[in-house]
Amino acid sequence: MSDFLTRMKAAARADKKTIVLPEGEDPRTIAAARTIIEEGLANLVILGDPAEIDVPGAQVIDPRHAEQHEAYAQKFAELRAKKGVTIEQARAQVMDATYFGTMMVKMGDADGLVSGACHSTADTLRPALQILKTAPGTKLVSGFLVMCTQTPEFGADGTLIFADCALNIAPTADELAEIALASARSWKTFMGDVEPRVAMLSYSTMGSAGGEVTKKVQEATAFAKDRAPELAIDGDLQLDAAIVGEVAELKAPESSVAGHANVLVFPDLEAGNIGYKLVQRFGGAEAYGPILQGIAKPVNDLSRGCSADDIVGVVAITAVQAQMAE
Known about the structure:
Blueprint: H1 3-14, E1 18-21, H2 27-39, E2 43-47, E3 59-61, H3 69-79, H4 87-93, H5 97-106, E4 112-115, H6 121-132, E5 142-148, E6 159-163, H7 173-190, E7 197-201, H8 212-227, E8 232-237, H9 239-243, H10 245-251, E9 263-265, H11 269-281, E10 286-293, E11 299-301, H12 308-325
Parallel strand pairs: 1-2, 1-4, 2-3, 4-11, 6-9, 7-8, 7-9
Antiparallel strand pairs: 5-6, 5-10
Helix pairs in contact: 1-12, 2-12, 3-4, 5-6, 7-8
């Protein structure tokens, strides 16, 4: 287990939060829930049929028959009134476990939600945006992964953030800058003892190659520097120039980020998603996430290829996010 996850688990135990798992029908969720309870990482609410879910120490709720159902439906109808949602439609919508779980977070009955083992990212994100909305001052919701590699010379003892690997397919320069700034804040949340160093990745280093992608990355870097001049951020940088000191000395000798980056911002979703899975599968890295940033309260998405251990890790991370949001 990585040092990062060890720290997340210790922090989660120190101030236990209540996390909702809407996918009580998934065997990985049940296995993860038992571990979470055994390790004391969080108070759990599992949504599903109590007759089918056996996790001692967890609260199991069937959204279809829950005592909170009507109160949640009334609140959901109020929140979505401008969209024309009626109370009858709200009652039907809150039957859905993810919507019910998100309403638990909205109403203060839980501190965070983790879903996605058997649902798409859209299924997790849609209720979060409809019910919880974005955090104050946030323009964009994005997703990152915490990558714990077996190469300690990269990032912070082998730990890096990769973004955006989950949501924004073809971000504009302005959106890419927002992803970079949000990712730097997320780094500080989880790795506060090490300052973020953000690399804006491309197939070019400091304009060594032309093209629209390179131009976009350069513009995004300028936007981010203008909005957060105190942040160590640079680009465009090729991946090797961003993390390998010897390459950085050749390609970007004047950069304070090159060779030392711990937050890697990919130019689009395609590059980010492929990149993290290559590092995970070929490099043997532990990948935690996608973790969502920019939502008013902690809601996190899982890869549908996740393991029970992955769910445990994301629950611990979500609990720490909830602590930091207080």
